[in-house]
Each structure stands twice: as C-alpha cells, then as structure tokens.
Target: EAL domain-containing protein
Amino acid sequence: MKDGTAQQISNALLSSAAGVASFIFSLTAFIYITSFNEKLLASLIAGVFCLLISYIASERPNSESARALTALGDRLLAVEQGDLTSPTPRIVRDSMPKLATAVDSLFAEVRASIENAHALGMYDPVTSLPNRLHFRAEADKMLASRSNEHRAAMLFVDLDRFKNVNDSLGHARGDQLLIMVANRLRVVVAAEVGEGQVLRPLLARLAGDEFTIFFPEIAEASDAERVARRIALAISEPFELHGHSVDIGASVGVALSPDHGVSIEALMRAADIAMYRAKNGGGGRYCMFSDELANEHQRKVDTEAALSEAVQRGEFVLALQPQLSLATGEINGAEALLRWNHPKDGLRMPATFIPIAEQTGIISEIGDWVIAEVASMLAEAQARGVMRRIAFNVSPRQLDRADFFQRLRATFSDAGVPLSMVELEFTETAAMECSESVLEEISALRRDGAFVAIDDFGTGYSNLARLRAMPLDRVKLDPSLIADIETSEKARIVVQAVIQLIKGVGAEIVAEAVESVGQADILRAMGCETVQGYVFAQPMFEQEFLSWTSNADRHSRSVA
Model:
C-alpha cells in the first residue's frame, strides 16, 4: 500500500475497537451498577479510555513521521563524511515513499555532477587528454611503481609558430589544430607500446601549446631520442585546416630518469630546459638534457637574480667607442656600450647578460639607467664646450612601454641636453615590427633634432618599403657583413649592394667592428661614411674618452 493507506486503515481499526470496547464497558456499567456515584465513576473511566485511544490513534502517524524525519536527517548529515551512495533509510521509504524517491534521485544527480566535475578537473576539454594535475598525479604513481631495471623518459613538446595560427585564423581554428596535434601524438605513442608492457606511456596537454609524454619504461636513451625525432617529424607535416595548409613544427626536450632526475618535477624541469634549447636552435628538432645544459641554465638563473639588483647596487657602467668620419678623419660621435661590473665575475660584456635581461623584462630598468647616464655624460661634455653626439641602443621592451618617449624627453630636458646630441639605435627587427604610433613618436623625436639609426643591419628581415618610409638618419652594418671583405669577392659584392641600398633611402652608412686599415680603405671606396672599431679606438670609460677625443681633435687623427 502507498501514500499512508495502511496507516489510515490501521488507525480506523484501532478507533473502531476503542468505540466497541467503550460501548461494552458502558452497557455493562449501566446494567450492573445501581449506585449513582459508581455510574458516574464508570462514565469517567469510559471517557478517559476513549480519549486515550483517540490520542494514540492520532499520534501514531506523527510519531512515525518524526522517526522517519530523524532518520532522514541522520542520512543527510552523513554527507559531511562523504557518504553519497547509501540509500534513504527503510523507515523513510515505508512512511514517505515519494520523499524517499526524491532524495535518492537527488543523490544520484549530485554523484553524477561530482563525477563530471572531476572529469573536467582532470582532463583537458579541448583534446580530452589528461591535464597537468592529472598528469602529475599519474606520472608520480607510474614512476614509483616502475621496475629499477628500466629507465624512464620525459618528453616535453612545445609547438612552433602556433601563435601565428591563433592570430591569423582565430582561436577556434587553433583549438581544432590542437586536437589534430593530439591525435598525431597519440599515434606516435601507440606505436611505441610494446607487447606485455605493464606501464603504458602517459600523454597529456599541460597548457596552451605544450604537451608532455612520460614513458615509465624505456630500454635505452636512443629509444627516447627516436621517439622525440618521430614526434618532430610528425608535427612538421602540414595540417589541413578548413581549406588552409598550416605548417607548424615542434620543439622537443628529452630527460631521462635516473640520469636527469628521480622525481617527476625534476624530470619535467630538465625536459623543459632541453625543449627551450631546441626552440632556440630554430625549432622543429629535439634536444637531450645534459650536464652542460644544466650548468648553462643555472648560470642563467644566477644572472637573472643578480640583474634584478645590479641597477640598485650601481654595478653598470658605460664605455664609449668613438666613431670616425672617413671623409674628414674627425670624431663625429660615439656609441655608448653597456658593461656590467659583476661583483664576482668582473667586467661582463653585453652578450653575456642582455639576452637574459630582454627575456625577463629587466632590460627596461637597465634602459632607463642608460638614458639617465647618457644624459649626465652629455651634460658634462656640454659644460666643457664639447658638442659631440652619443648613440645608445633602445630595446624593443622599452618601446612597449606607453610612457617611454615621454620619459626619454623628460630625462634629457631635465639635464639641459638638446636632442641634437642624442642618437637612438634600434635593431633591424624592432624597426621593422614597431607600430605606426611608435614610428610617429620616433619621427617626432627626429623632427626635434634627435638622430635615428638602425643597428646590426643585415642580420634580420627588412621590408624595403618600410625602410624607405622610416624616419632614418644612419644604418649600421652588422660586423658579419664586413668581416671577410679583404679576402672574399662575394663579401665585397654583398657589402657594396647593401651600401647602395642604404644610400637609396637617403641614410648614412656606419660600419662597426672595423679591425684593419685594409677594411677601412675598402669601405671608404665603397662609399661608407663612418666607421668604428679597434682599427683606431677601443671602447673607453668616460674620462679616458674625453681625454682621448680632446687629443684626437688637436691632431686630427685619421685611419687613412
């Protein structure tokens, strides 16, 4: 029976029995009892009896419901201990079947929601591969349970040029490409699973365009290298994406256990370091972690830590290298070259720390110091009556700052230095890629007297139309262009062509790292106006530079 029908029938029977009993008792009392007082007492007893039976009949369902609700409350409180599987108590199912069914359904839905949330929290929603959290947990278990007879291998895969796909085709197409990449990686991993292998490889997407593969059992290091090579080749094949043929690549880093680490964290760090070496080598390749890479990475970490405090500690200095006019033999300027007076390593050249400063963003702070130092040098030179231009490099990171040009102008204005004594050098790549708003700011500086130069020309990509339209005064040839002009006809042809190209856009040519009189003579014959290099002067610190240039002005030095 349902909906309390049995309870209702039970109560009706109980009430009927109570009525019959009361009738019999009352009838007997009136027949056999003759005294009025005894009849009154019997009537009271019969009435109390009837009231008692009626109360019991009415309270029975209430007490049953109370017990059922108490049991249901206990069941709900059990959720705090994580019990989502036990059914509702029997007393609830018997007395309140509809409520019991609803509670069971609710728990079923909660369990399903938790399972779905757990799946979302452990798997990547785009590729359906395990995510970082899942990968770390499972890889830890696999590494702990593997046999000591085998090595383990960690492969870190980072896609090359994936950002270009997102930028040109959109993030929806980028997600589709990630799915296709994941499928190719699945194929490579499946091909490496041997018969009877207990622990299978674990493939995951960590984040963005980063994937990782953990092989808990691998026989030789060469096997890991073979897999890494196969991955690089698989991803290098074009992807057909909605009518577009997309060419990307993959940089793969490889680390082995126990050679490069005995924990998942250590292996992932080592594989990540190796991957960046592969990417810096041009991408589309793999790299095995090594002690050399470990030492190089540690030096980088130490350099990053020291750079963050080097400006505050006053460890940077500027050296000035004179620039000589091949036409007049006069010193027509100088380039400020950064040096780091490291407390342990001594004087360090820019190549040992500038790339790291660029990567970490510390270059912006260093650049601010350089501008302030150049302004101070020019102010002092101006006070001595020397009006000679100083050039300094501007990092692309500095151009990203909205207030860069405002701060630059304010620094030289506060020092009382006219912009005509300032030359800003931009790398070829930065000059080609800077925005129109940055170009307008550079043009404004040039209109106010500053000189603008492109540094290291010949090592990057130049858009000739952009080069012609740029606000430009000088172009500095990269040292690699002129290194062999004394001995190589091809080198001379290339340099001559570059010089004619630069002259075609109306800019002056400056040759760096000129080391011999022979090089200077060839460059002068080709039409190069200015040189700097060891052929006539090494970089010098400020006081030495002022003394040297004063002497050079008196004697009109020339390299000819």
